[in-house]
Design goal:
Length: about 140
């Protein structure tokens, strides 16, 4: 079967909210019927997530990854600081959407990396105290 790829506009829904996205999809050249293509569907979904994120000013996966790299935080440390489940943070880094509450917390923390550096410094000094106390 010979196929072609052409741009199509679809409406995807996030809850009740429609997000219109134009993305390439694969079609049978002879019949014009859509041919399933996992990679193109994934690209369309990612694009829709990006549009939704922009519309609602949501933290992006790359924002979280960059913040962790900048501060040297592990997922576990960020989970502890934000009270967001570690596995869920990992899923957010892959591309899922945060809740409004999670977004507020993540945006606030990402905007003030100096606070995290202070927290890490205090945590390290407290660990030294614990080691001395346990000696």
């Amino acid at each position: 079967m010979e196929t072609i790829v052409k741009d199509v506009t679809y409406t995807l829904y996030f809850g009740d909210e429609p997000v219109e996205v134009t993305s390439p999809l694969r079609f049978d050249k002879e019949t014009g019927e859509e041919v399933p293509d996992k990679e193109l569907y994934e690209a369309m979904t990612i694009k829709a997530h990006e549009l939704y994120r922009e519309r609602h000013n949501l933290v992006s996966p790359q924002d979280i990854v960059n913040f962790r790299k900048q501060t040297g935080l592990s997922l576990k440390q960020l989970a502890t600081i934000t009270s967001i489940d570690e596995l869920w943070l990992q899923i957010l880094e892959i591309g899922d959407l945060p809740s409004k509450e999670e977004n507020v917390v993540l945006k606030a923390i990402i905007s003030r990396p100096d606070l995290i550096e202070s927290y890490l410094d205090e945590t390290k000094s407290m660990q030294g105290v614990k080691k001395v106390a346990n000696y």
